Amino acid sequence: MDTTQSVVERSAIRKVAIRLVPFVALMFFINYLDRTAISFAGPNGMNTDLALSAAQFGFASGVFFIGYILLEVPSNLALHKFGARRWLARIMVSWGIVSLLFTWVGNVEQLYILRFILGVAEAGFFPGAILFLSLWVPARHRSKILALFYLAQPLTTVIGAPLAGLLIQQHGLFGLAGWRVMFFGVAVPAIIIGVIAWFYLADSPAKAKWLTAEEKTWLTGALEKEKKETAASNKHVSVRTVFGNGRVWMLAAIYFGFIYGLYALGFFLPTIIAGFEGIYGAKFDVFQKGLITAIPYLPAAIALYFWSKDATKRGVKTWHIAIPALVGGLSIPLALFAGSPAATIAVITITAMSIFAALPNFWTVPTQFLTGAAAAAGIALINTVGNLAGFSAGYITGWLKDWTGGYTVPMFVVGGFMLLSCILMVALSRSGKVSEGIAAEALDPAGAGHHSEP
């Protein structure tokens, strides 16, 4: 009986990993490429054509997150109510249409407005995707599944940066400047994949035609049992009380530090690389700049995979999240003193590896003590507060660069926020008197949460 169940379990998880994760990861790939496309457009003609200062470029990059934040929690609650298939497809088509309009942006005011509306359109996608995948697999398999999903983010830059470079080089196509061609080229896939998602995704294992009856029964039973156990031991954690839950807010602050580092790199790395020409006399064409931008993210994808594999084997421990935060916080300011393009990229690579190693393991934590609508609200709240860093990183980095004349102060600020994430992660664990792993008891305000090994 146990052997049969083990076979069914392996088969069910494998099918979820093959059937769902690559497609949702593709959606995430397009999502991240569309929101960061401005980072490639800026130093390759847009900043000049629209007469943008570094602060204006930073504000345009960051204002996306204001619209995103305003509708994040409501969007995720709507996903819980209407189903992931419909809601994720709707989000994707909406942001694809808005992204397409960037092709014809004419001035800084229009850029600000479109970036804000893009945030509104994308609101809820990322936490919705996290919640969607979490509802398909029991906790002990979640770290692996989320790691496979999260691989899309670094690979977006590995593949997307050279792709953006190639599109920008098509200057004159349709009578458009190269950076406008790039916006057009990355927007259309969002609309197409969004339409396909409506028909391809299923809301739950019970509705998946590609699972056998035995696999449906096992997955549905395992998930329902876990849901009841979590709900029984955390009856006080409702949608309303999520907003007063200190552990949720601490997780949001930890996530803030990681996202600050992620988007400071994402938005300004292409600009920093373009600056190599002035600092070191190096000459690169647009495609070469795209390839250089991609360099840190391939090792980051490898680090993400193996770090998360270790977390799946051992169970997610405090140090799986705290150590990458520490390494990232210490490494990013060192890039300022590297002395050459190669050394600078090498240090930035260490930072990128650190950020991506931590993120998928971080997201296994909230669903250890939240379930149902509370999980939807909690994940959305953490992502909402964390994404304040998306606005802060872009605007503060650009403003500090204009104010100080360089990236020294901005990069020390990035390092400081990541070190704060490390400190808070350790404090979170110790507050629950857990020295080894992140048990749900450490996350439950009453100190009696249900523990599920991810």
Automatic annotation (TrEMBL):
<dbReference type="GO" id="GO:0022857">
    <property type="term" value="F:transmembrane transporter activity"/>
</dbReference>
<keyword id="KW-0813">Transport</keyword>
<dbReference type="InterPro" id="IPR011701">
    <property type="entry name" value="MFS"/>
</dbReference>
<feature type="transmembrane region" description="Helical">
    <location>
        <begin position="375"/>
        <end position="396"/>
    </location>
</feature>
<feature type="transmembrane region" description="Helical">
    <location>
        <begin position="112"/>
        <end position="136"/>
    </location>
</feature>
<feature type="transmembrane region" description="Helical">
    <location>
        <begin position="50"/>
        <end position="71"/>
    </location>
</feature>
<keyword id="KW-0812">Transmembrane</keyword>
<feature type="transmembrane region" description="Helical">
    <location>
        <begin position="319"/>
        <end position="337"/>
    </location>
</feature>
<keyword id="KW-1133">Transmembrane helix</keyword>
<feature type="transmembrane region" description="Helical">
    <location>
        <begin position="87"/>
        <end position="106"/>
    </location>
</feature>
<feature type="domain" description="Major facilitator superfamily (MFS) profile">
    <location>
        <begin position="20"/>
        <end position="433"/>
    </location>
</feature>
<feature type="transmembrane region" description="Helical">
    <location>
        <begin position="286"/>
        <end position="307"/>
    </location>
</feature>
<protein>
    <recommendedName>
        <fullName>Putative tartrate transporter</fullName>
    </recommendedName>
</protein>
<feature type="transmembrane region" description="Helical">
    <location>
        <begin position="343"/>
        <end position="363"/>
    </location>
</feature>
<feature type="transmembrane region" description="Helical">
    <location>
        <begin position="148"/>
        <end position="169"/>
    </location>
</feature>
<dbReference type="Pfam" id="PF07690">
    <property type="entry name" value="MFS_1"/>
</dbReference>
<dbReference type="GO" id="GO:0005886">
    <property type="term" value="C:plasma membrane"/>
</dbReference>
<dbReference type="InterPro" id="IPR020846">
    <property type="entry name" value="MFS_dom"/>
</dbReference>
<keyword id="KW-0472">Membrane</keyword>
<feature type="transmembrane region" description="Helical">
    <location>
        <begin position="181"/>
        <end position="201"/>
    </location>
</feature>
<dbReference type="InterPro" id="IPR036259">
    <property type="entry name" value="MFS_trans_sf"/>
</dbReference>
<feature type="transmembrane region" description="Helical">
    <location>
        <begin position="408"/>
        <end position="428"/>
    </location>
</feature>
<feature type="transmembrane region" description="Helical">
    <location>
        <begin position="248"/>
        <end position="274"/>
    </location>
</feature>
<comment type="function">
    <text>Component of the tartrate utilization system and may allow entry of tartrate and tartrate dehydrogenase.</text>
</comment>
